[in-house]
Amino acid sequence: MKKLMFAAVAVAAATTFADISSNVVGYQNNNLQQGATMLVSTFVPVTGTEGIDLFDIKLGGTFGSSDICIQTLTATGLRDKSYTYSYSKKQSRWYWYDGSKEVLKGEVKFEPGTGLWIFGVDAAQVTFAGAVSTDDRTVLLKNGAIATGNMTAVPVDLHDIIPSGTYASGNICIQTLTPTGLRDKSYTYAYSKKQSRWYWYDGSKEVLRGEVTFAPGKGLWVFGVDGASITFPGPTL
Questions:
Q1: Helices (H), strands (E): how many in the chain?
Q2: Which DSSP state fits 160?
Q3: In Å, how far from its chain's centre is CA 203?
Q4: Angstrom distance (rounded) from CA 167 to CA 229
Q5: How many CB atoms lie within 10 A of CB 94?
Q6: At the N or C end, where does the chain have fewer CB atoms within 10 A?
Q7: CA-CA distances (angstroms) from residue 179 to 35, 118, 176, 223?
Q8: Distance between CA 48 and CA 87 in Å, rounded?
Q9: Average pLDDT estimate for 122-126
Q10: DSSP state of 44
Q11: Average of pLDDT values for 169-181?
């Protein structure tokens, strides 16, 4: 049976800002793909720090009922929470479904910096909007992995992501993922006893400044330990 399809005019394909002021706001349109994409919002809520409401994540492009599903992940990479965008023929409307019931506005909020594992199709898009933060953004790590990403409004060099806290060589590893959830690229923070310095290692060689950058909104799967953290530098607008 043919799926009901939804089409919308896509907004800008990159982060777009309103006039620069004391409270800069903007939006970013992200293309989805067949399979899943790890994304993180590059904005914080305009009204405060209470989190990003599920209903403030806008969908566009062309997709069918249940083609788009937003998930959070556990420390082992398994599904934690799941929210599917579905269409009710009976009520002639779209709604979010958590697997057992409809989700209402205000019921689901994501902490800023939370990486979202989003299933979709090639013609669909997800749009994040809100206020632009120029503050440094610190992410607390834990034993296992967390989904996060470049939550700033500008590209970030791997070397500008600063580990801190308590950790040992090899404890912190930043990965990108394929659409099927497998490891794509991997960058480990290691210590050279011979040279008495820390460096990023991609599995075959040291990564130099300028060789690896993460676009705004790029989701990252970060392994760590309790007591460690990484900090993304705040952008200069």
A1: 0, 23
A2: G
A3: 24
A4: 9
A5: 13
A6: N
A7: 5, 9, 10, 19
A8: 31
A9: 97
A10: B
A11: 97
**Contact, 216 vs 222, CB < 8 A?**
no
Tokens of 30: 């992200």
Exposure of 48 by Cβ count < 10 A (0-12 exposed, 13-18 middle, 19+ buried)?
exposed
Arithmetic mean of pLDDT, 19-26 = 57
CB atoms closer than 10 angstroms to residue 128: 23
C-alpha 44/C-alpha 235 separation (Å) is 14
Tokens (6 digits) for 231: 């900090």
CA 229, CA 225: separation in Å to the nearest integer? 8
What six digits make up the tokens of 136?
Answer: 């440094």
CA dist 43 and 51 (Å) reads: 10
Could you report the per-residue pLDDT of 198-217, keeping only the tens digit for each? 999 999 999 999 999 999 99
| pLDDT for the residue 70 | 98
Q: Note the pLDDT of residue 48.
A: 60
- Among 67, 218, 221, CA closest to 128: 218
Of 104, 128, 102, give the one whose Cα is nearest residue 37.
128
The CA-atom distances, in angstroms, between 216 and each of 53, 64, 82, 104, 235 are 20, 27, 24, 29, 11
- Residue 6 has a pLDDT of 34
